[in-house]
Write a structure and sequence with these properties.
The protein is α+β, with helices and mostly antiparallel strands and 128 residues long. Helices cover 16% and strands 48% of the residues. The protein has one domain: Lipocalin, CATH 2.40.128. The chain contains one helix and eight strands. A hairpin with a 5-residue loop joins strand 6 and strand 7.
């Protein structure tokens, strides 16, 4: 019985640890180098989503409140967020998405169709 309790406690702590690591993506991020769009990433029902919360110039191409990123799940082994979608405002195009935080703190989001290496990468810096 003691072994079961210890195992259960270890499993709970591992889940809590992975959740904290996955939450590193939460917050507001500004695209770089242009610095003309801020997205806010939040967690809803164990998936990470990002919506546009600010643009340098108000326009219909990047509407405030638009859910541009959704469905990302944190992969604790790879330290990446995977299996998400990137929605391109006004065009209706949806790309597969993955993301990672590089050692320098930059969030790199990769949008792709089919193969990750053929995708387009967009970088973001955390807004304080």
């Amino acid at each position: 019985m003691k072994q079961f309790i210890i195992l259960f406690a270890i499993l709970l702590s591992l889940k809590a640890l992975s959740q904290k690591e996955g939450d590193a993506i939460l917050g507001k991020w500004i695209d770089i180098p242009r610095q003309n769009t801020i997205i806010e990433v939040s967690e809803i029902n164990d998936e990470y989503k990002g919506k546009i919360v600010w643009t340098k110039t108000a326009n219909k191409k990047k509407p405030i409140g638009f859910m541009i990123l959704e469905g990302l799940k944190y992969n604790n082994q790879k330290k990446t967020w995977e299996k998400g979608k990137v929605h391109v405002p006004n065009s209706g195009i949806v790309y597969n998405a993955s993301a990672r935080i590089k050692e320098d703190g930059i969030l790199e989001v990769n949008g792709y169709l089919g193969f990750k290496f053929l995708g387009k990468r967009k970088n973001f810096k955390k807004v304080k």
